[in-house]
Every structure is written in C-alpha cells, then in structure tokens.
Amino acid sequence: MKYTNLIKLSVIASILLTYNLSAKETKNLEEVTVTAQKNEENVQNVPISMSVFNDIQLEDQSISNIEDIGKYSPNLFFFNTGQQGLLSPSIRGIAASVISYSTPVSLYVDGVPTMSSFGFADGLEDIERIEVLKGPQGTLYGKNSEAGVINVITKKPDNETKGKFHTKLGNNGKKEYGLNISGPIIEDKFYMGISYKHNEKDGFIKDTKTGEYINHKENDYGKVNLRYTPSDKLDISLIASKSKNKNGAHDWAKAGQDKNPTSSSNLKGSSTPSIETLALNIDYDLDSNTKIKSITTKRVHKDKAILDNDLSAQTIRHFYRDYKFDTLSQELRLEKKFNTTNVVAGIYLDKEKDDLFLKRITMMDPSGANSKPQKLSSQTMSLFTNIIHPINDKLTINAGIRYDKEKKDIKIDDSNISIENNWKNISPKLSLQYNINNKSMTYATVAKGYRSGGFNPYASTNDKESYDEENLTSYEIGYKAMFLENTLKVNTALYYMNIDDMQVQEMPTPGIVYIVNAASATSKGLELEVEALLNNEFTLFASGGYNKTTFDKFKDNSGDYSGNYNPYAPKYNFNLGIQYRNDKGYYARADINGYGQTYFDSANKYSQEAYELVNAKIGYEQDNYDIYLYSNNIFNKNHDATNAYFNGTTTIYKEDREVGIQLTYRF
C-alpha cells in the first residue's frame, strides 16, 4: 500500500497531460521569476528542482509560517520537535540531528542565513515569494546547504501607497491579525514598508493537578523595510525584523494517549524564543551588463525554555535552556554578462558567537552544579563563482565552484575543556541543460555539498571530541515543460546521492549522546509537480516526492543499522488540490496532504505511521476585501508523532481540527 499515493499522483498527471481544455480563451499560467542562481530567471529555465510560492499562492494555500511550505513541496519535511523555535528541516531524506547546531538545509530570509534548527521557524509577513531549492547548493550558498536551500524574499516598497489588514479567528482560542503598510516617503527616492503580525492559540495538553491547559502559544512579529533609490543605478534596502514568543510547555506528554492528552509534570514548562534580524542589501549597476551586490546581515536568536523531560511528578530530568546565537555575515558579489554568458563571482564571510547554557537537574545532580556554560564560535571565509554559458541554441552549460574555510572552537566555563578545529571544503557543480523547444527543457547535474563539523565537548576520548564535515555527492536529471498553450506545467526530477562521513547520533552509554561520522548512506528518489488550468475558473495541483535514504554502513555498541532508513525522513509526501475562482468573486479550495512512514531512530524501532490531512477553504473575494471560512485537518485525523522520544515513552502531540473565519481588507 505504500505506493498507492504515488500511483494516484501518476494517474492524475497522466490525465492532466491528455486533458482536452474546451475553453478557447483559457488564462495562461503566469511566468515566475526567481533568483535561485543569484540572478533573475524564469523558473522553467533553471536546472534545479524547485518549488516556488508567490504572494498569491501563499495566501491561497494559507502558508503563514516556514513549516507550512512542507505541505506543498515534494521531499521537503519539517520535524516539529514540539518545542517552539526548534524546527528540524529535511530535504530528500537528509535530515538534521535535533542536538546538532548545523542543518543540511539553509534558510535565507532577505539574505539573512539560518543554518541551525534553533530558530528555523522564522516569521513570514509581506512576502513576495519563497523559493525551495532541492539538491546540493554549495556552489552559491556554501556550508549547510548540502540537501537544499529555502529563500524568502520580502516585497519591496515603491511609489504605490498600499496596505492590508488580515485576521483569523478560530476554535481553541485561535487569534491571528496582521497589518502591512508600504509607500513612498519621498517619491522616486525613499520608501518604507511596515509589517506586524500577532498569533495565539490555546493549549491542548491538560495539567492533571490544576486542570489548566499548559502548552498555549503566542507570537508577535514585526518588520520594517526602508528602501532608498537615489539614482536609477543604485538600490539600497535596510530590513529589520523581530519575532518574540511567549509560550507554555512543549507539546510533549506520556505516550499512549490517543485523545485529550494530559501531563502530571511537577515543573511548569515554558518557551520564549526570540529572533532579531538586520539586512542591508545594496545593488549597484555599473552598466547594463554589470552589477555589484552587497548583503550585510546580523541575526541574534535567543532560545529560553524550561522542560520537564521525565514528564512525571518526580524530579528526574529537568532542563533549563538559555541559548544565544549571534551571527554576522557579509557577501559581496559581481554579476557580469558577456554577450550571452552570465558570470557570478563573490566572497562570503561570517562570524558567529554562541553562548549555550543547558542546566540539567537530575536525581544525581539535584542542584545542576555539573552543568557549565559553553561558548561556541566560528568564522567562515568563502570564494565562489558560477558561469552559465550557452554552447548553442539548444545546449547550455552551468558550472560553478566554491572554496570554504571554516574555523570553530568551543570552551566550557570553569573547566579545562577547550577544543578548536579547522575545516576546508570545495563544492563544485556541473549542469548541462538541453532546450527541447521554447516550452520544455531537460537537464543533468552533478554537484557536491557539505554540512559543517562540530564538537562533543564531554566526549570521554580525544578522537570523539570533534566530528568532521558530512559530504554529499548528487546526480540528478530533470525535465520542465509547459503544454497546451501554457495552461499545463509539468516539472519532474530523479536523483541519486551518496553521503560520506555521515553525521549520526551515537549513544555509548545510556543518556550520553554524541554526534560522530560513523555512517555512509545512499539517497534516491523522484519529484513531480503539476499545475493545470482546466478553464478560466478551475485549477488543479498535484505534487509528490518519493525518497529512500538508507544506511550503507552504520553500527555502534547498540547494534548494526546497515540497511535501515535515515531518521526524520518520510518515505514520501504529496499534495493534491483543486481551486475554484471566478470573476464574480466566489472562491473555493480543497487540499489533501500526505506523508509516508517516518522513523525517529537509527534502529527503526520508533516511527510515525503514514497519514493524510485534508484542508478546505471557501469564500468571497472583491478588489478591497476577502472573507473565507476555513478548516485545517477537516476530518480531525490523528497525526501525533507517536513514541518519538526517549525510547518510546514520549509522544509529540499535534493539534486537532481547526475551524475558523479569515478576513482580509486592502487599502
């Protein structure tokens, strides 16, 4: 049965390919411009498997946070740890260890990088588009992009004065409201955009002693976008944002509670992560064929949480987390066009200082005296170039290379532990693109990517004090095409990846977890995205990904895991959707999103079974306002991450059905 959903996707795609569109004046699918390769291109001409969401699609699909885009992007999955601010991304079966500070997927919001699971759940408001790039992107993006990259681009304020107010009200105390305003301060010279969003919802895990729900959520997000264009050649943007959470306990409870989970914890949990970002983007056109771009960013993420890991009335394992991640980055690049050849070359620098303190209260250490603050710092220097050169009218070569040098060190306060290491990496990429005609193309790509190394400061032996980079080599072929007078889009890709020096969790003794380069693995799969305008009112969507990422070699003191699936990587995911929108303002949409079985440990003992969720929205739209009724998980399907943690004793519980009303007013 595990291939049933993929077969459904194939059948639907076949039907769409042969569908006879009866309407003579059917609208066309709009051309989508992306900047995945650091210059503006039609997404259908980019030799990368990509999912792209513009501002209209973000609203239609009710995407309000980073996690939501996983519903509509093949082979993209976010493991929600149940702790706010800690979201672990996975692309094509390559996932991040929750305890690692490096991910295989990088997030860039207006150029501000996030390369750790801590703080990956950044805010989304007044967004122009989101680009999800699959496969190694090391040539242009460097470290921690071995499996892919997510780019988030904010709308630019301009001479048009405009604003939008939106709100959601739903069951279980769901309240969301936001405001966007932008326009000129000095016409043709200086512009400003302001965004704000508040989101809150009641908890659903009840304290057995007080009868109160303990895991409520509350978030405030604000952004200011200042843009200055003193001439036609110079464009300067300064974007500042801040996100602050005031949440209750994490979404954990004892395993085995199907509905209405309860907790008997003797510690009141809380989670109050915050993120502050600053991005200065400068574009200067030297001439019509030459551009210099500078991106300077600052990001501070603070993660404070109180967690009762034993979930009992006894003090067995209590954690008090106080983390601060402070990152400064600078990218300077030159974009040059020689006749038909495009060249991008640049330098990237970053500096990170992290203060990490995890106080552990246990029966053996009731005062937490053995917990010591850690200081982790790193510096990266990168040189890169990428060339796109058409050999003839049909064949184009896309080649790039990047050199990264990274230095890291960690120090433990009040101890003699001080570890330092240096890593170097070269990330090449070669892609051949063949244009079948002006509506379709195919490509083949070989690329390398890597994930940064790190430290195990409390390792008992010197050889495990640090672990090296994880390296990945990918082979991919893809096909992109438009059919039936640009009313049908079909994009697909096949890939095969080898992962060496794989970073995996090892538990040499109970309760002690290290990350080590102890495994090699193979990942293979396919991706398909289909969009079809059936007529001027109906649009069909179908997307799906199949992935198989297994260990070629991996064993430790607890067993041999060779042949097992990599944790936190669903075997498949898919989306099937239909949307109706007419000129009179009536709107309706329904989606079914599905995920395959997902394991949470290397032994493949604990897993989340396959599940499907149905979302629906119906409403009325006019030029200056929209009103909708919506329901997420309309059939109230149970999709808890059963037995995910601590040898199957703990479940990450998920919210039940949400029903509400959504209003938008534009001015």
Give the termini distance in whole angstroms. 50 Å
In CATH terms, the superfamily is TonB-dependent receptor, beta-barrel domain
Show unreliable segments.
1-24
Largest sheet, if any? Answer: 22 strands, antiparallel, barrel
Strand portion, in percent? over 45%
Helix content: under 10%
Can you identify the CATH class? Mainly Beta
Mean of all residue-level pLDDT scores: 91
Q: What's the total count of β strands?
A: 44
What is the SS-derived class?
mainly beta
According to CATH, the fold-level topology is Maltoporin, Chain A
Please give a handful of descriptors for the protein shown.
about 60% strand, Maltoporin, Chain A, 44 strands, about 675 residues, 5-stranded mixed beta sheet, mainly beta, 22-stranded antiparallel β-barrel
